[in-house]
Amino acid sequence: MLKQQFFEINDGITQEHRVTIANGLAALLADSYSLYLKTHNFHWNVTGPMFNTLHLMFETHYSELALAVDLIAERIRALGFIAPGSYSEFAKLSKVTEHSGDTDATDMVKYLIEAHEVVIKTAREIIAIADEANDQVTLDLLTQRLQVHEKTVWMLRSLLR
């Protein structure tokens, strides 16, 4: 459970919805940050015939994720809560599996697909409650995140065929 700020927000989103959405976004933030770290790790450590392609692709992906985690954290703050921001908090909240950089390039791609799918599922879990709360800002954020992650999964899968 996230720590709430000590000010009242009266913008049409109930406190119950605000708590549920913020906690869902905290899980999304943790999953996204864990995916950022995994992608950056693989960027540093990829080897093999696809080195240049994967190295550059992973850099594009982790750069996008670096911007995304900021947007997610800022939405948590706008809802009136303290955003998680430590490795220990992320470890408790994230469902993304860790892998070392000493991994075959093809396995890196497979592991990134799995991790993006975890993030997609986490984002989808929040949509219904944000819709019920009439929280268009969170819905817009989630729609944008889903679009990016689904496209990334498609691109990564294309490398395996």
TrEMBL record:
It holds the Pfam family Ferritin. Residues 24-160 form the Ferritin/DPS domain. Gene3D superfamilies: 1.20.1260.10. InterPro entries: DPS_DNA-bd, DPS_DNA-bd_CS, Ferritin-like, Ferritin-like_SF, Ferritin_DPS_dom. It comes from the Bacteria. CDD domains: DPS (cd01043). One of its GO terms (molecular function) is ferric iron binding. Belongs to the Dps family. This is DNA starvation/stationary phase protection protein. It comes from Aquella oligotrophica.
